[in-house]
Amino acid sequence: MADSAPAATAPDTGNTTGGVEIVGVTKRYGDSIAVDNLSLSIQPGEFLSLLGPSGCGKTTTLRMIAGFEHPDSGDISISGRSVLGLPPYKREVNTVFQAYALFPHMSVAENVAYGLQQRGVPKAEQRQRVAEALDMVQLRRFADRKPTMLSGGQQQRIALSRALINRPSVLLLDEPLAALDRQLREEMQVELKLLQARLGTTFVFVTHDQGEALSMSDRIAVMRAGRIEQLDGPEQIYAAPASAYVASFIGQQNFVQGTVAAGGAAIDTDLGVIAGPWGGERVSPGGSAVAAIRPEFIRLESAGSTANGADARVLSVSYLGETLQVVVGAGEQTLLVRTPAPTAPSVRVDDDVRCVWSPDDVRLFATDGAPLASTHVITLPDRSGT
Ligand code: ATP
Prior knowledge:
There is one protein chain. The protein has 386 residues and is an alpha+beta fold. It is built from eight helices and 20 strands. Strands 6-7-8-3-9-10 form a six-stranded mixed sheet, sandwiched between helices. Strands 13-12-11-14-20 form a five-stranded antiparallel sheet, with no helix packed on it. A hairpin with a 2-residue loop joins strand 9 and strand 10 (227-232). 39% of the residues are buried. Bound molecules: adenosine-5'-triphosphate (ATP).
């Protein structure tokens, strides 16, 4: 039977144009290691995101592919050829930055043509290529306007068009949507993905926004301290995180701390015994571990139910449109529960309920014993009556 999950890798066409190979690359700044013996093979035509918190080495990796930084050791190849000795302008790559850096006194067309003009490309060819590049981002009708007369999203599309005018094999994007407001950012995510699919250009996209990475990427490299913690398709990264770190970084999680029970297939916690498969390396009985349960995998049943889960009391109920978000207190812990609003049970603050989950939806992870904060931010309602 065909697997319905998206492929974790872009199809291997046997063509190396646009492929990027990073082999054992390390980059230090003084005593600190920004990128630590990192290896990564990016397929031609793939949309790959480097995702991770600030300081994990995403931008440094991107800048080394671009040629703005140089590895202390290791090798980087683009389209099957090592680029280590090549300056940025001789690599088949172009970069789009968060700041669009457009010239305000020039028209949209002049901005896009700037690089061609600097290289002395004949005027007629410039006009044709600018028109093509603006068509790629559907901005030809604004060719004669000044960038300041356009929205933030349109300005970023000009920057994109300027980066694509030479049809680079690889486009590097360093948080290009970070300056846009949420709605525009979501629109641009769709546009970028469509553009990339149409052009077949390899996109390497740096972001710390997990939603952005999930929605656009063929594969995501989740980075931590200069290394790749997990490299997989979005679905695998979300549904089968390889470590508590990845589980906490992608989507929302309830973490329940515990100690591995005899037999190793469950942990003893304040909420009772929680069983489930291990998400990463197993820990021996007696060791510290955490159970991760996503909010959408918890169901609320009436108090008195004996189904697998924990007794709890409702602390807050929020209607979010498509979903109902309920925060419950269970023992010393709060749990976030999300259910589709149309089928949500009717619950009120202070109701006693049973949180129910299937062990199949739990993942156990090793921890170093330090408490792992659940990744939902909960502001409990002020119930002091003041
Ligand atoms: P951000 O999302 O904040 O840009 P990042 O994941 O892209 O973070 P990098 O910018 O690659 O991370 O930085 C990785 C590490 O290298 C950080 O500790 C950073 O302080 C350090 N670093 C980066 N550039 C330099 C530099 N030019 N000089 C010294 N240290 C640097």
